[in-house]
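Summarise what follows for lecture notes:
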Amino acid sequence: MTPATWPCPLPAGGEAREYALVFDKAREPRLLIVPALFEESNRLRRFTVEVMRRLDAAGIDSFLPDLPGCNESLQPLERQDTTDWLDAAAAAARHFGATHVLGLRGGCLFTPPGLPAWHYAPVKAATLLRQMLRARILSAREAGDEETRELLAETAAISGIELSGYRLSASFFRHFETMVPGARATTIGQDAVGGSGLWMRAEPDENAAQADALAAILTQAIAA
């Protein structure tokens, strides 16, 4: 595994260098992985890397790029819109010469078209936002404040909002809220991997059996 950078298009033109973790030995199968989003990205990152290690051992190159505004990106998250992330995922696929793509959870919303795709435990954007709004409401209640999901959503759609430490613009919130995973991808449910989803745990974690299972499913599918 090595760090790499790739040219991410900027909304106003030009490009920025974004970070990626890669297993690249110039092999024919080349899998782009669109990571889970927001806090789920943190909880699944170790698991994602372990899956990549297993794919490497099976002869498959893989690439895990940062979306602009996330992880090591220097671009402000609050300036991103959903089209920026769609463009970024497509640009990463072109740069790394991806032959296949895997989306993880919310990352399934941004898998670029035109490639054989798998979606691991895909989730609607509205579901992710509902979870983040609930977390904010509970945090406010513990601090002695009362907030409602309806008022927060209305405010977010007009002036943006901070949820779980992530500052989202009004435009991002409005466009993201309606997104659903594409129907053309092959869905890999949690039942196929076994156990409970690691994104539901309070802290980042890994599970060797789950990583083995997901890597095996992908290896078999890519080889078919």
The chain has seven helices and nine strands. The CA atoms of residues 30 and 49 lie 15 Å apart.
